[in-house]
Design goal:
Helix content: under 10%
Order of helices and strands: EEEEEEEE
Largest sheet: 8 strands, antiparallel, barrel
Shape: globular
Oligomer: single chain
Structural class: mainly beta
């Protein structure tokens, strides 16, 4: 079911659609998510629950503390008979110095864009509590690439 592998984060972070809608001052960077594992449970009525995990990388402009982060995401999604998805998850990524950032992500049913909320972490990420958006740009098998951003969330 490779067409459901687009969740990971950023799944997430994760949603097919035009990235041009978010070009502008709140575009912070790009992400790449590679699916690691998926498990499906049939819920009946052509509805399935999926748990997933992925490996993710985030990039931002040079000098941003959110540049060159990598780590893991995990979460769950309900896949409805009409193909719409409702998803949530959590990620932990680290920079080259070892500081860890955690964030949660959601994608509402039928939305073409997801939302993230930073939860803090260690070192320079301790006070990171920003929120923003993510949007998938390309899905190629198990690899999803996309854009992310948010007012005040780039530096």
């Amino acid at each position: 079911m490779k067409h459901f592998k687009l969740f990971t984060l950023m799944v997430g972070l994760v949603i097919a659609g035009s990235a041009a809608a978010k070009d502008g001052p709140d575009l912070c960077g790009q992400y790449t998510s590679v699916d690691v594992d998926e498990k499906f449970i049939d819920m009946g009525n052509n509805t399935r629950f999926m748990s997933f995990s992925s490996s993710t990388q985030m990039n931002a402009e040079e000098g941003s503390k959110y540049n060159q982060l990598s780590g893991q995401c995990t979460g769950g999604a309900v896949i409805y008979a009409d193909g719409t998805i409702d998803a949530e998850g959590m990620c932990a990524v680290s920079d080259v110095g070892g500081d860890v950032l955690t964030y949660t992500f959601t994608q509402a049913r039928g939305a073409k864009e997801g939302k993230y909320q930073r939860k803090g972490g260690t070192g320079k990420f301790t006070a990171s509590k920003d929120s923003g958006w993510y949007r998938a740009v390309s899905l190629n098998g198990e690899v999803t690439t996309g854009n992310w951003g948010g007012k005040g969330g780039c530096k």
